[in-house]
């Protein structure tokens, strides 16, 4: 298996006279950049042939949606979160946690590594403002019969979703627009809408 936008090398066992892969390459090893079934025919020095194949998986890169407010009020702060569970987190600040608190304006980048070793990156521009700009993280689509979780990020005092719930996260099993209004401990508020 390998990550999207990269390659992997497949190697035949040594000791054969001829190698022929299903993509017509006759080297001992091939480099591939897409998933699928790859066959190999080898011929030994007696002219005997042996066939084998390998299934190669191409893992998608994690889609990083940074949650939390993209703004904070004067003398306040905001908490940014990775919006998912990953093996590793690397913020541009040097932090390696799932969430960080920031009290300075600027661009904050995040690179995550998932359980397959694949990396995904995103960034968010944080500004100082008179109202909050919450960002909802999580998938924006799902298959029939399934559900997804939307995450508004921690760091707020109150959460008010358009369906009447008031938690940081919201489980969604129907398409539509979901509005969120948040307030922080300084009394600043803000709202946003996500379409599922």
* H/E series: EEEEEEEEEEEEEEEEEEEE
**Strands in their spatial order, largest beta sheet:** 9-14-13-11
* Mean pLDDT across all amino acids: 91
Biggest sheet architecture: 4 strands, mixed
**Count of helical regions:** 0
Overall number of strands: 20
Low-confidence parts, pLDDT < 50 over ≥5 residues? none
Strand % is: over 45%
Alpha-carbon Rg, integer:
24 Å
Judging from the principal axes of the Cα atoms, what is the shape?
Answer: elongated
Distance between the termini: 31 Å
Structural class: mainly beta
Helix content: under 10%
Describe this structure in words.
The protein has 196 residues and is mainly β. Helices cover 0% and strands 48% of the residues. A hairpin with a 5-residue loop joins strand 19 and strand 20 (189-195). The radius of gyration is 24 Å and the shape is elongated. The protein starts with a strand and ends with a strand. The mean pLDDT is 91.
How would you concisely characterize the structure shown here?
This protein is an all-beta fold and 196 residues long. It is 0% helix and 48% strand. The mean pLDDT is 91.
Detail the topology: elements first, then pairings.
Blueprint: E1 2-3, E2 8-11, E3 18-21, E4 29-32, E5 36-43, E6 49-56, E7 58-59, E8 68-69, E9 71-72, E10 78-81, E11 88-91, E12 99-102, E13 106-113, E14 119-128, E15 134-135, E16 148-151, E17 158-161, E18 169-172, E19 177-183, E20 189-195
Parallel strand pairs: 1-7, 9-14
Antiparallel strand pairs: 2-4, 3-5, 5-6, 8-15, 10-12, 11-13, 13-14, 16-18, 17-19, 19-20
């Amino acid at each position: 298996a390998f990550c999207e936008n990269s390659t992997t090398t497949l190697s035949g066992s040594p000791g054969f006279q001829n190698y022929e892969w299903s993509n017509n390459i006759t080297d001992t090893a091939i480099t591939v950049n897409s998933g699928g079934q790859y066959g190999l025919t080898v011929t030994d020095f007696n002219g005997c042939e042996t066939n084998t194949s390998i299934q190669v998986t191409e893992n998608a890169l994690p889609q990083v949606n940074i949650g939390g407010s993209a703004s904070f009020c004067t003398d306040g702060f905001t908490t940014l979160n990775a919006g998912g569970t990953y093996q590793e987190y690397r913020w541009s600040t040097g932090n390696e946690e799932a969430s960080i608190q920031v009290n300075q304006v600027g661009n904050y980048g995040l690179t995550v590594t998932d359980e397959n070793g694949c990396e995904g990156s995103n960034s968010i521009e944080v500004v100082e403002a008179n109202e909050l700009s919450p960002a909802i993280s999580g998938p924006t689509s799902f298959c029939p019969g399934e559900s997804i979780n939307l995450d508004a990020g921690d760091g707020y005092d109150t959460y008010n979703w358009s369906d009447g719930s008031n938690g940081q996260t919201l489980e969604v099993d129907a398409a539509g627009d979901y509005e969120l209004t948040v307030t922080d401990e300084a009394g600043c508020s803000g709202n946003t809408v996500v379409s599922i």
